[in-house]
Amino acid sequence: MGRLPIFSKRPLILVSKSPRRRQLLQEAGFVFSVRPLEVDEDFPADMPVEEVAEHLAQRKANAGRHFIEQKEIVISADSVVIRDGRIYNKPENYEEAVHMLRQLSGARHTVITGVCLLAAERRCSFSERSEVFFEPLTDEEIDFYIQNYQPFDKAGAYGVQDWIGLCKIRRIEGSYANVMGLPVHRVYAELMAFE
User: Which of 40, 42, 78, 139 is catalytic?
Assistant: First the structure.
């Protein structure tokens, strides 16, 4: 398979531990290396919830600034799940995952993924928003899901690409890839502007 011009001219570095972001980029034909970073994910308490994901993506990109070499572009991202003005982060335990999924059951929520693209000469950051509509979840289904899919590394305690996405998400308004963790269509378009 040949390469698109952007992939041969600019080395890409993904600074994320997320296997889903890696998968999305690989499936889209991106050529990149991975350098995961540990970054504090706290944010100001008064920050509007719609701005949090992009803020965290910028923080992650800035943490990788020190290893950017000529022509390299760092890609960082962060996703948040929002319902009724509240952010649902990664659950710390079984009980927290149960609570989150009960809150999302039968309801609509928003997934915002913030992305930052950082090169030596420029920075570009943006957010993409998708609306997700859940079918009602019974306690038995919630227990089955948590026990079998261990969603402790996922915002909102679920992954759109697994059982919940297949069986309990009625519809999505916006990008499926964005809900999975990276709005690849927008990343691609913005990377083309770095030519």
Answer: 78
Q: Give the per-residue pLDDT at 120.
A: 86
- State yes or no: is 40 an active-site residue: no
16, 76 contact by CB (below 8 A) = yes
State the amino acid at position 15 in one-letter form.
V
Using a cut of 0.85, tell me whether the model's pTM lies above it.
Answer: yes
Contacts of 45 (CB under 8 A, 6+ apart): none
- 183-186: Cβ within 8 A, 24+ apart: 183/113, 183/115, 183/128, 184/24, 184/25, 184/28, 186/115, 186/126, 186/128
Q: SS3 for 100? A: helix
Which amino acid appears at position 59 of this protein?
Answer: R
> What is the average per-residue pLDDT within 175-183?
97
Please report, for residues 42, 53, 99, 117, 171, the alpha-carbon distance to residue 166 in angstroms, rounded to integers and kept in the order given: 32, 25, 21, 31, 10
150: left (phi over 0), alpha (psi -120 to 50) or beta: left
List Cβ neighbours of 8 (8 Å cut-off, separation of 6 or more): 31
- Domains, the chain: 5-192 (3.90.950.10)
